[in-house]
Design goal:
There is one protein chain. With about 675 residues, this protein is an alpha+beta fold. The chain folds into six domains: about 55 residues, Orthogonal Bundle (Helix Hairpins); about 230 residues, DNA ligase/mRNA capping enzyme (D-amino Acid Aminotransferase, Chain A, domain 1), CATH 3.30.470.30; about 80 residues, Nucleic acid-binding proteins (OB fold (Dihydrolipoamide Acetyltransferase, E2P), Beta Barrel); about 70 residues, Orthogonal Bundle (DNA polymerase, domain 1); about 90 residues, 5' to 3' exonuclease, C-terminal subdomain (DNA polymerase, domain 1), CATH 1.10.150.20; about 70 residues, BRCT domain (Rossmann fold, 3-Layer(aba) Sandwich), CATH 3.40.50. It is built from 26 helices and 24 strands. The strands form six sheets. Strands 12, 13, 14, 16, 17, 19 and 20 form a seven-stranded antiparallel sheet that branches. Strand 13 and strand 14 form a beta hairpin. The longest helix is centred in the first third of the chain and has 20 residues. It starts with a helix and ends with a helix.
């Protein structure tokens, strides 16, 4: 007779394999009655001997008391979004850009993988020594919410990897979703209870994953497809292609979408996309497109990333569902930057599982292009099946009394004259005291990426602005608990907590303060880059106003951002805002520890390649593109994507193309991988 430890381990292994066969392979290996009996035996063993309980036990898929909330966790590896293509022309354009980035001739065949784009919610799964350690939502790509207890209830996600000698850590990315039949059953149950119905499976899945009670999640029977794998660089299990990644995931116990294809070139993948555009409605789950990925992982590494997305992958979205409706009126919204966006309001129409009655018209040029009249019959669709937009007008159905739509000359919020600068498509309100601009600026200032002030939502901001209690960012910090407690939906405790949160926000790092100012073109990434070189608003303003070329020269910044920064900092109202923010305790500069960290990073970068510009081309024998770039930057060098007279070295590998030819013509020194590594030797 095996002892209790051996029996528990035996039962766990048997039940996990049976669950994998049932939920992933759709090939049951145990009769339900036998599974239930063995499961009951394991439950009894664990209850009688709590020391036998382990995180990979199938009894832990549904368990635990409801959570009090979710904590934010940093992703080991960021989850970037994908760029979109909406037709074959845009897909070909992406392919041509990819070839250019890889220094390949137009028309060069590249093996590509096509995978159905599941209309669900992205998850990041972390395994430690083969056991599921943590699961998190995508969040903002850098961090997400930790929802491990909920994810354990998804039967198609293995609690333990089905491989021998797993690496120390494994990161798996994939899509959680609700199958169509399950979604219908959920809505039927909600209707019977008199509850509001979910609009579509994606919304239902998102709401389910954020349930505080794992038992509710388990009852909704979510499913999961895996599609991305990250392993330690030292791992012996490292696949060399996306196709091999999918095979690895299957072998490890994950459910991988069987509807995928390895194509020899773009034409083969285009055929795959066309086929599934027609067949997608036969699937038991929602898909809104095809994800196209470069198959070779080394070439993926060579292609690299933009700030927001990989260059080696793109999502080809299916043509959106379209529907005709009647235009009732055109309103206008004023955004945080003062941009006035016309909004079409029309008779409600069902699109992609939701009722839609409003859609952006973007700008005056778009209104003119459509030749839009009030009363027109318009065709509306959801771009990417998310954002409603007006596609075209049916002029043959235009009523005789229809009037042409004109964008207003005055701001709909403050009546200030609207302006249109240069060749910009946008029409703007430039009144910094405009309530709409103020509301948008306040929402941005307290957002998670900026000052991260908990408890100050849109409704409260509207109250504060509408009542004249807040007329600038600085006014937020002059509010007291007694005043806040007198507002709608605010009590003494909420008011006290908000005042404390505002006070704490003064200690946010300098780059968050810079981002929070809402300067045009300065997002989170650019704010961090600027804050690393300029330790406060004074040094930044001095450079922006007196030496903008210093800012433009920073990696990833450029003249457009430099000009925007200079314009903002030279505006008297903004200069007064900075003075006011300092007066209430905002430093607008890096702390001593932030400066020390930045200086340390700079010191570590000093090296033999200091102030040198290098270009990488071709496939290096041993170093990945990422590793080579890291080595160069650690030695003080800068990696550029194109060869010019300013290039100091070209590092050339196998299949080096036009970059090598151009470098030789310009007299640029060409290095091999061995030359580079020798140069970097101490």
């Amino acid at each position: 007779m095996p002892d209790r430890n051996e029996r528990a381990a035996e039962l766990r292994g048997l039940l996990n394999r049976a669950a994998h066969a049932y939920y992933v392979l759709d090939n049951p290996v145990l009769e339900d009655a036998i599974y239930d009996r063995l499961y009951r035996e394991l439950v009894d063993l664990e209850q009688a001997n709590p020391s036998l309980l382990s995180t990979d036990s199938p009894t832990q898929r549904v368990g635990g008391a409801p959570a009090a909330g979710f904590s934010s966790v940093e992703h080991r590896i960021g989850l970037l979004s994908l760029d979109n293509a909406f037709d074959a022309v845009e897909l070909r354009a992406w392919h041509e850009r990819l070839l250019k980035q890889l220094d390949r001739e137009v028309g060069t065949p590249l093996p590509l993988v096509g995978e159905l784009k599941i209309d669900g919610n992205a998850l990041a799964l972390s395994y430690r020594h083969g056991v599921l350690e943590r699961a998190a939502t995508r969040g903002d790509g850098s961090s997400g919410e930790e929802i491990t207890a909920n994810v354990r209830t998804i039967s198609s996600i293995p609690l333990r990897l089905q491989i021998d000698n797993p690496p120390e850590w494994v990161e798996v990315r994939g899509e959680a979703f609700i199958p169509d039949h399950t979604f219908a059953a959920i809505n039927n149950e909600r209707a019977a209870r008199g509850e509001a119905l979910f609009a579509n499976p994606r919304n239902a899945c998102a709401g389910t994953l954020r349930q505080l009670d794992p038992k509710v999640v388990a009852a909704r029977r979510l499913d999961f497809f895996a599609y991305t794998l990250h392993l330690p660089n030292t791992s012996d299990h490292q696949p060399d292609s996306q196709w091999a990644v999918l095979q690895w995931l299957e072998q490890a116990g994950f459910r991988v979408n069987p509807n995928r294809e390895l194509g020899a070139d773009l034409a083969a993948i285009q055929s795959f996309c066309n086929r599934w555009e027609q067949q997608r409605h036969d699937l038991p789950y929602a898909t809104d497109g095809v994800v196209v990925k470069l198959n070779d992982l080394r070439l993926q590494d060579e292609a690299g990333f933009t700030q927001k997305a990989p260059r080696w992958a793109i999502a080809l979205k299916y043509p959106a569902e379209e529907a005709p409706t009647r235009l009732l009126r055109v309103g206008a919204q004023v955004g945080r930057t003062g941009a006035v966006t016309p909004v079409a309001e029309f008779e409600p129409v069902a699109l992609a599982g939701t009722s839609v009655s409003r859609a952006t018209l973007h700008n005056a040029d778009r209104i003119a292009e459509l030749d839009l009249h009030v009363g027109d019959t318009i065709v509306v669709r959801k771009a990417g099946e998310i954002i409603p937009e007006v596609v075209r007008v049916l002029p043959e159905l235009r009523p005789g009394e229809a009037s042409r739509v004109q964008l207003p000359n005055q701001c709909p919020e403050c009546d200030s004259e609207l302006v249109r600068e240069g060749e910009e498509a946008a029409t703007r309100c430039i009144n910094s005291s405009c309530p709409a601009i103020l509301r948008g600026g306040l929402r941005h200032w307290v957002s998670k990426g900026a000052l991260d002030v908990d408890g100050l939502g849109s409704k409260l901001i509207e109250q504060l602005v509408d009542r004249g209690l807040v007329c600038s960012l600085a006014d937020l910090y002059r509010l007291d608990a007694a005043l806040l407690a007198s507002l709608d939906r605010m009590g003494d405790k909420s008011a006290t907590n908000l005042v404390a949160a505002l006070e704490a926000s003064k200690q946010q790092p300098w780059h968050r303060q810079l981002y929070g100012l809402g300067i045009r073109h300065i997002g989170e990434v650019n704010a961090k880059a600027l804050a690393a070189d300029f330790f406060g608003i004074d040094s930044l303003a001095s450079a922006a106003l007196d030496a903008p070329e210093q800012i433009a020269a920073l990696h990833g910044i450029g003249p457009e951002i430099s000009a925007s920064l200079g314009q903002w900092l030279s505006t008297p109202a903004n200069q007064q805002l900075l003075t006011d923010l300092r007066s209430i305790g905002l430093s607008l500069e890096a702390s001593a520890s932030e400066q020390e960290a930045a200086n340390q990073a700079g010191a570590e970068a000093d090296g033999v390649l200091q102030d040198k510009t290098l270009v990488l081309t071709g496939t290096l024998p041993n170093l990945s593109r990422t590793d080579a770039k890291a080595l160069i930057e650690a030695a003080g060098g800068k990696v550029s994507g194109s060869v010019s007279k300013k290039t100091d070295y070209l590092v050339a590998g196998e299949a080096a193309g036009s970059k090598l030819t151009k470098a030789e013509n310009l007299g640029v020194t060409v290095l091999s991988e061995d030359d580079l590594t020798a140069m970097l030797q101490p």
